[in-house]
Amino acid sequence: MKIQPLFTVLTLIAIALFSFGCQNSSQNNSTKRSFENQGQATVIDEESKANILQIARNSQDHTTLAKAIEAAGVQNILVNAGPLTVFAPTNAAFEQLPEGTVGDLLKPENKQKLANIITSHASPANLSFDQLTEDRQIYLATGQYVGVEVKDGEKYVNGAKVLASVEASNGVIHVVDKVFLF
After folding, report:
1. pLDDT of 105
2. Same domain, 33 and 51
3. pTM, whole model, 2 decimals?
């Protein structure tokens, strides 16, 4: 007789645990789905060294580039483990383009064209400032090569002057004064 009440209590506990587990599972799946749609770029990590995307997003001199990265949908590429080298045009570099060019490129119908332009500023390598040497050819993620020149002690990549270099957790950023257009 004592076994029946104990069995009933254990059954109720098992049902409650199963029910709770199913609710948790569906919550985890919906959370998982939302992250799957957004990718690695949505991960917030304030402990580790900043990656290339985080640096671009937090730079006042690269607000146009950050908008272009988002509009082109390439943000998840810039948070990959790398190594990557990114030649990051400043806001002033984008302002040198013909009037209306940036606004036109940011339109949804030009997403692929913008992605190609942004990708043409990246190399699947970790190239420090010291490795940017005269006559070096740098392979870009788009399959093109760009040259390095040294003029009056200043380094230029594809005709753009390298203004600064910043190390990131997944590579290096070289700040440049021109947008690469092919």
Report:
1. 95
2. no
3. 0.74
Report, in this order, helix, strand and coil percent for the chain, each rounded to 5.
45, 20, 30
Asked if residue 163 has pLDDT above 60, the reply is yes
Sequence-distant (≥ 6) Cβ neighbours of residue 22 within 8 angstroms: none
Within this chain, do residues 128 and 65 fall inside the same structural domain, yes or no? yes
Q: At 78, is the pLDDT very low, low, confident or very high (cuts 50, 70, 90)? A: confident
Q: What angle do CA 70, 74, 111 make, to 5 degrees?
A: 70
Query: Residue by residue, what is the 3-state secondary structure of 32-50?
Result: HHHHHHHCHHHCCCCCCCC
Q: Which two tokens stand for residue 143?
A: 């399959």
- The sign one gets for the Cα dihedral 17, 20, 22, 24 is negative
Q: Looking at the domain assignment, is residue 182 inside a domain?
A: no
Both 54 and 126 in one domain: the answer is yes
In single-letter form, the type of residue at position 46 comes to E
Q: What is the domain extent for residue 8?
A: 3-38
User: Do 145 and 162 form a contact (C-beta atoms < 8 A)?
Assistant: no
- 1-54 pLDDT, tens digit per residue, is 455 544 444 343 444 434 444 444 444 443 333 334 454 444 455 666 899 999
- Length of the chain, in residues: 182
Residues 73, 156, single domain; the answer is yes
- Is residue 68 domain-resident? yes
